[in-house]
Design goal:
The chain is α+β, with helices and mostly antiparallel strands. It has nine helices and 21 strands. Bound molecules: zinc ion (ZN).
Length: 370
């Protein structure tokens, strides 16, 4: 039973407050918090604040005594990820003398920050190999409770926190790693199954953040990536092994086709520039084009220099007006006053309009110029 002393609410949830709680709070010692149920309501988040426990619930209840239920599968997963973190941190230390400056446990993946701006692939793989060897050795994970002096004789990976009072909780993984910690751990490294590093990146200027998953999360990740790769290879009608080469070749082909298209569009625009319909409005020769943006983009190159020319381009969902001689900002304001639903903008010699019929725009232009 859990005794709820008080219930408050914020914009989204009801918060059941107790003095003691079987639920491990979120963020304590960098760990993920417990989930489960209180009085049949779902626990969404647990916070510890000034000696009180705040349980965020998905419904309302009155203060009183309630049955609770802790999601043990989730706790097992947290223990798995977290013990994997101990093993990985120790592995990087042994393989390359890299220290873990901080770690973060996440719902999807976890990270450790190593004290080097770059970590080469060989080191990543060596540490990953060593960590998985420790998993396969099925080492016992022991929790020792010792006085500060006794614990300091143990060759700890990181020192006991200055803030720690009284007895110190030590986590000992066989003879591989001994470190003070208050979180959840598996009983045997074999329970972890698999530790997989997913990625790394440089952070805070001088550290390397290593992303990893363990246990069921690692299997889930492997399964998902295998599915993605199989699906891609099936789309490309090739084997998984050939996928990388096929994608590289495809991208090369796309690049070549694209530059060919650019050249063709430019040639076509040059040809069109001599044959497009023109309408004389006052001093201006208005030239209209309706078609592909790739072609329209090149028309100003062949027609845009003449101050007496106004180009009206209808390009897939928008209309562009380009002219060195027209008061483009003034015309834009004029059009906006007439059609208040249009969107767009522009500069001194070019405006882009969305949501207007090119025929209506031509009428606006005739009225504006006369
Ligand atoms: Zn721990």
């Amino acid at each position: 039973m859990i005794r709820i002393e008080q219930v408050m609410r914020d914009e989204r949830n009801f918060i059941a407050i107790s003095r003691e709680s079987p639920f491990y709070p979120d963020g304590k010692g960098g760990q993920l918090g417990d989930r489960g149920k209180i009085g049949g309501l779902r626990v969404l988040k647990v916070e510890e604040r000034q000696g009180l426990y705040l349980h965020y619930l998905d419904g309302e209840l009155e203060p009183g005594e309630y049955e609770y239920e802790i999601d043990l599968e989730r706790r097992k997963d947290i223990a798995c990820q977290h013990t994997a973190q101990h093993i990985l941190s120790a592995s990087f230390l042994k393989v390359a003398d890299l220290e873990t400056m901080s770690f973060h446990m996440g719902e999807e993946y976890s990270t450790i920050d190593l004290n080097a701006p770059f970590v080469i692939n060989e080191v990543i793989e060596e540490a990953e190999d060593l960590a998985n060897e420790v998993v396969r050795k099925c080492l016992k994970v022991e929790i020792l409770t010792l006085g500060r002096e006794g614990s300091e004789r143990l060759n700890l990976r990181k020192p006991v926190s200055e803030k720690a009072e009284g007895e110190v909780r030590i986590v000992k993984i066989g003879d591989f790693d001994v470190t003070p910690c208050g979180g959840f751990h598996v009983e045997n490294t074999g329970n972890i199954g698999l530790i997989k590093i997913l990625d790394r990146e440089k952070v805070k200027g001088s550290l390397t953040r290593v992303y990893f998953v363990a246990g069921k999360r690692a299997l889930r990740d492997y399964r998902r990536k295998n599915q993605i790769l199989r699906s891609i290879s099936s789309i490309l009608t090739t084997s998984v092994e050939e996928t990388e080469k096929r994608v590289t070749n495809l991208l090369e082909d796309v690049k070549k086709a694209h530059s060919k298209l650019e050249k063709m569009a430019e040639d076509f625009a040059e040809f069109l520039s001599k044959h497009l319909p023109r309408e004389q409005i006052c001093d201006f020769s208005v030239i209209s084009f309706k078609g592909y943006e790739e072609v329209g983009r090149f028309l100003p190159k062949f027609l845009g220099d003449d101050e007496k020319v106004i180009l009206v381009l209808s390009l897939e969902g928008k209309v562009e007006v380009i002219s060195k001689g027209l008061d483009c900002p003034g015309f834009f304001e004029y059009v906006k006053r007439r059609h208040n639903t249009i969107k767009g903008g522009g500069s001194r010699d070019r405006i882009v309009l969305v949501g207007i019929d090119p025929k209506e725009l031509m009428e606006d232009l005739r009225d504006f110029l006369s």
